[in-house]
Amino acid sequence: MKKYRIEKEYKDCTISEYLRNVQNYSGRSIRKLEIFLNGKRVKPKKKLRPYEVLMVKEKEKSTDIKPIKMELNIVYEDEEILIIDKDPYIVVHPTLKKVDKTLANGIVYYFKEKYNKIMVPRFYNRLDMDTSGLIIITKTGYAQSFLQEKCEVKKYYLAIVEGIVEKDEFIIEEPIGKIGDNLKREILSIEKGGQYAKTKVKVIERNIKKNITLIEVELFTGRTHQIRVHMSSVGHPLVGDKLYSNREYNIRQLLHAYRLEFINPISKEKQIIEIEMKEDMKKYLYN
To answer: What structural domains does the chain harbor?
Structure first.
């Protein structure tokens, strides 16, 4: 439960206005709150007076995801968010084919052990099974809506791609879509159902001997398979990509979410989380 003492300047504001404009709640997250003013349950439209005590509590929300103990690579944690470095070959969320031993199962177990209750793991971003790296899990609806609506989360990836990328830096701005029920996405015009997608690519290192390039990728949009589709479209599919490369591989796609920049929901200050490239990528690049 969060507690706020109302200052004089917010006299005659409604609770809803105060939560939106001062505490950065969204309309959606306010609807999920139990609200108390001076200990009495009230509605969001009630007006405030100086020095009153406002307390808000999120309505309990449960999940049917089974808690399963897992080793979690926790990179950062506070009252509102949890950031994990996901290993490759782990599914993020249960699907029809994979209902347990996913990252979500491990997080539900972790929350149960820490808070002695079942909590919904709210994923701000998700990664393909083969993709490793940083995932943000919000603990509350407030943090989820804050990251989605009140701030811009910048996501950066490291990828090893086939061939030598000649330009040091460039932007790919091509819409992405799919035809029918195909898993594979492709460059598809807006008129035919494609969605706008923008990717910035920067060369980090070229390995001429192995004919591969290490790149940094910044996503401006979050389309399914965006990096894989865009890099394949310019002739440099990801090493290990069994869907978008014409080569045969017995390794994963070498893609790693290594850096996040965002405004922290608690401090309201810019926060940067950065981790190293995975060992399998280092080995493929340098050995």
So the answer is: 2-58 (3.10.290.10), 60-150 (3.30.2350.10), 155-257 (3.30.2350.10)
- Assess contact for 174 and 199: CB atoms under 8 A: no
Q: Distance between CA 209 and CA 224 in Å, rounded?
A: 32
If pLDDT is split at 50, 70 and 90, which confidence band does 58 have? confident
d(CA 226, CA 244): 11
Q: Distance between CA 226 and CA 42 in Å, rounded?
A: 45
Catalytic residue among 85, 128, 130, 241: 128
Looking at residue 170, its amino acid is F
pLDDT digits (tens, 9 = 90+) for 175-214: 999 988 888 999 999 999 999 999 999 999 999 999 999 9
pTM for this predicted structure: 0.84
* Known catalytic membership, residue 12: no
Signed CA dihedral, 188, 192, 193, 198: sign only: positive
